[in-house]
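ok so heres the complex, two chains, lmk if somethin looks off
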Amino acid sequence: MLRSLNPHQLKGSVNLKAQKLAVDVASGRQKGSLLLKHANLINVFSQEISLNHVLLAGPLIAAVGEDYHAAEAEEVIDLEGQYLAPGLIDGHMHLESSLLSPAAYAAAVVPRGVVAVVCDPHEIGNVAGVAGIKWLLAASEGLALDVWVTVSSCVPATALETSGASLGLSEIDELLGLERVLGVAEIMDFPSVIAGDEETLAKVLLAEHYRKTPEGHAPSLTGKALQSYLAAGIISDHEATTLAEGLEKLRAGVFVMIREGSVTRNLAALMPLICPEYAASIGFVTDDRLPHDLMDEGGVDFLVKTAIQAGIDPALAFRCGSLNLAKHFKLIRRGGIAAGYFADMMVLSDLKNFKVESVFKHGQKVAEAGKLIETSFVKPQPDATVVSRSVKLPALSAQDFRFSASDGDHLIQVIIPVTGQVLTERQEFKVRAQGSEIKANASANLAKLVCVERHGKKGHVAKAFVKGFGLKAGALASSVAHDHHNILAIGMNDDDLLLACQELARLDGGWVVVSEGKVLASLPLPIAGLITDRNIAEVRLDVDRLEAAAQSLGTDIDAPFMTLSFLGLEVIPELRLTDLGLVDVFGNRLVDVLIS
Amino acid sequence: MLRSLNPHQLKGSVNLKAQKLAVDVASGRQKGSLLLKHANLINVFSQEISLNHVLLAGPLIAAVGEDYHAAEAEEVIDLEGQYLAPGLIDGHMHLESSLLSPAAYAAAVVPRGVVAVVCDPHEIGNVAGVAGIKWLLAASEGLALDVWVTVSSCVPATALETSGASLGLSEIDELLGLERVLGVAEIMDFPSVIAGDEETLAKVLLAEHYRKTPEGHAPSLTGKALQSYLAAGIISDHEATTLAEGLEKLRAGVFVMIREGSVTRNLAALMPLICPEYAASIGFVTDDRLPHDLMDEGGVDFLVKTAIQAGIDPALAFRCGSLNLAKHFKLIRRGGIAAGYFADMMVLSDLKNFKVESVFKHGQKVAEAGKLIETSFVKPQPDATVVSRSVKLPALSAQDFRFSASDGDHLIQVIIPVTGQVLTERQEFKVRAQGSEIKANASANLAKLVCVERHGKKGHVAKAFVKGFGLKAGALASSVAHDHHNILAIGMNDDDLLLACQELARLDGGWVVVSEGKVLASLPLPIAGLITDRNIAEVRLDVDRLEAAAQSLGTDIDAPFMTLSFLGLEVIPELRLTDLGLVDVFGNRLVDVLIS
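and the predicted structre for the whole thing:
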């Protein structure tokens, strides 16, 4: 009779053998694999911290209790009062923001106690669609980090761009059927939700059909607009920035994810929500974290640490980074330390300084003293064809970047980057065309921005001007360009713009700084033009070199490549450039650079 | 593109039309169906009670907020500060214990604010198997009460009985695939779990496969035994009777269901668990409630009321009877009052006395002033063939009940019912056989108990003796006989025992009292021999008449039919009678009545 069960033994859950072993070990019929003695156990079910023993059976926790003895396990570790906490779950993040492959990301955060992330593969979805997301699933299969996926819900962002792929209802349906897919990712297009757009609303119902979660993204939505958005059935949000906004959402039934990204940092403002009364409704997320923040601060562990340092009950802080997210996403046997749960745990010698000594994943020690250690968890090597050689440029010459205009004075509209924000502003600016063209002009702090379609489709080239980037010479280019990820290049002359684009084509994507016909620095991002398989320390060094090179060309903007990568995002105000041209975001339409 | 979504529109969730209507109403593009103004809203997300307005759109709540006005709805009810609370969910119960059909049960509890039950159709499963459970699903489809099902996990209870049906892994698999099935019901066979029995363990994995819940039943399990049981992956329990037991289970990650049944009453002992720190881990359940308790006290509403009267924060008490259970069972859009949720709510004029004025189900008023009202919710009329004429007795004569023994003194083992409990005790007792038989004997308070197989299978007849039932004449018989539900009859002479059995066959099951060849009272239970379609008031009157008739025959036991119905339950100590014979529960084997 048991043979009929085989098809039901899931990858995501345990098999009968592991389950039976746990029961046999707990019952004393078999020896456990490991006994962790004298752990100061952080119990996220009852918010208590007290000394206890934890007996493991392979991947599972067999038992927790004071009555288990050394003779009952093959191996014994006496923690001598060190803390034992559940491994952390990052409830919403974009792997691509780290510029790292799943394996490289795992190496960066697992030693910090992060055992799982729920990622929205939004960027790779825009470049490579369903195949790209399936590559990401394959590339993260069997890591020491559980990589769960929510299906990106807004690919492409609008019709005013050429993306590499689109995810319609049937693609979302296909992906929702996969075991490691937990829901529909942040439904960012809140205007369409509130407007009652049927295709957008249907994404919520699709998630419900699979008993999975429809995730939200409701920046600054309050009052009636928030109610309209929630009326669709969306159940979470990670965009609250003030306590009042967080509390309003919580009262409205929303699972409030508190975000501490690289740019958007909301933990301090929302900290008072982390109290016993609201405890079950709060989760921690990072959304977007850049390599240097991952290295200097950490991933979702940074939120737990910061909350503890601010005086939050440590067990409650851990709960927001573990159990609550597991429950929200309906994850089985995850998020706490209890019999039957996966043995995903971390040992800390110091809570206040969040000093992680070692990390266990599915019962195996996978990290110690800040480093991954050799385990049976191996770096997956999926076929990367679908995400390789993704930078397919049209044949280009410097002539393609020439901005023609009749000689004389003109009024143009230019993009103003806002320092430290994703927003841009629109400004009208007087220029003079000479030789039938308008050129970049260092003395006016005016750079040329070009967007080149790179998915091998129409080969569009669009041009505009940016004021305030600070460049005096050369060019920067990026194949990371939210959300369509065409090539964005900013520069002071067409030859360097061309070289920058060509160099990116040669590297299969990445970031590059060129000047006077020479490549000054580069970071290859050959996977979909978005990420690299190299480790975080190498990537960070490259980023540092790139930023230094960009500064040497005169720019004084913080994180110039991040700023550049957002100049094409046509869903955030106010003026953007896609491969189809200049976009007036408020008007949701293409506009001319030349006003007169 | 939307056409491809149709197959995904679930019965259990909303369709696109209802969803869009809610968004349109919240956004002001359409009028709502109803505005409930000045509600003292019981917010189970934030545990707050404050004045607010709630705008409905058909079955859904479109919006909650102070800014909605009468002009925005077709109908307006000013609640003038009356309380508005989420409708209640009973997290674990057996419909059959009420002796009522789903429709009759709904009529009894919906006016009290109960909008959903999670039932374990254990009894009908034993009688009619998968077909019986499917009948129950059909018979509860579309009621004003949501009837969710967990698949009974221990049918039959043991091999020492003849049940009408069995539910193996493939039957459980089949039922788990159904939309209204939420999990595997209380895994009562904890010895098999702890022993690592693979077939029992596999039931947990099957539930996980469907992303549904494996429910527990761990009476008095603590320490290592509890850890062994939980190591299997079981996530809930409703058997804790002391605060220490409840707290130990909660700390072990268990969702602790507090039960207040007709016989087993644990709320008072577990009340201290209902505090903000543990709030998310507690749910309310009734398990088994008899008609008179349902009428006098209520269903799961009785727990909320009792908790409030004991001084528990009312919002927290409501949360244990609504949101927490919805989350535990992964129910979508249920358990609270918020935009996007189903409009399942109750209006109360008085919290302390729990005075329910009206109840809304999916936006419709379904009850008012304690009575169901006419709605579009209609009593379902499924084909009842599979649960009809279920009492199939062998050809019987009084001779079949004769207990033969050689003339002279004998030592027999007899069953002792324990007043007010499900337990029985075993006692050895001296008797004298005359005319080659041992008879019931009123002066020794010794009655004869017979069990007749009634599923039309082997036609077994087994006989034993019960001491202390108090009968002086006549006989009682019941087709409700846990868990196999064969006929159990207890009486003082074989002719009355025969008549009682024959009358049950004529009624298609039920309860009956006979004496001196006459039927004194009866309650027909023609659906599977377990329940009736009649209303609760009629059933209660019949039960009162039956108990009076039983008392007239000399018995002084409380609830004699309930006591009788448990005399055949061979999984609870100590001595029982099934159709296969006398069962020594501790020995898990058949034994002889005659010791010498």
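quick notes: Residues 14 and 89 of chain A are 19 Å apart (CA to CA). thats all i got rn
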